[in-house]
Design brief:
Elements lengths: L1 H20 L22 E5 L16 E2 L5 E3 L4 E7 L5 E12 L5 H6 L10 E3 L5 E8 L7 E6 L5 E5 L3 E11 L12 E12 L3 H8 L6 E3 L8 E2 L3
Length: about 230
Amino acid sequence: MIKQKILAVFFLLIGGVLLIGSTHAWFTDSTRLEQQLPMGKLEVGVTCYNPTVTDLEPGSTNMELSSNLGETETVAQPIEGVIKNTGSIRAICRLKKEILFKFKYHNDSDQKNGIAIPNDEQAFVPDDKGIVSLFIQGNPGWETEAGQWYQHRSSQQLFLVLDPRSEVSINLFYVIDGIQTTDRYQSAELKAAVRVEATQANMEEALYEVMGVSMADLELLNDKCPDYLTLEF
């Protein structure tokens, strides 16, 4: 009986050891749903087809002007251009003018006396007197299939909403102020540019964060609006 008890205890202990020390290989599986989501691309550009203008003088313009007798004196010769959205995201663009002059003379007196600024010191500076006015015209009008033109109700700045991979044609016109263009401007170089700032159009938060405006501030343009609108700084 003692021998049987000992054997019984022994087998129970071995069984206990086997129970505690054994491991089990459970069947397992896992999976993951993966979807690649490429980020969109925001990219806009401006192209001018005939940007070179030479020998400007006070009162120069490429707009059509008429005399007091109603006879045309100047035939309009617009600078033609295209604003493009080459990206994959709908974009809203703000258009601003940028006018820079590189002067050969510091002032009118230096020009009269032939005292020029050394070439290595000549640099382009902003047009702080508003000598040059820039006007823009939608081509053929303000209503297009590729985008929508807007104007800010208070600042009069122009905005353009462009669909992805689309473009809108524009005409640019300039007027050189004949009264403020004094002798200092002789032999000066002029850079007239349209600066296009863009952000994504589908998120109004982006418009406000980047440009400080909301769509409620903008008025949609149509072909009943004036043909020419002024580009602001």
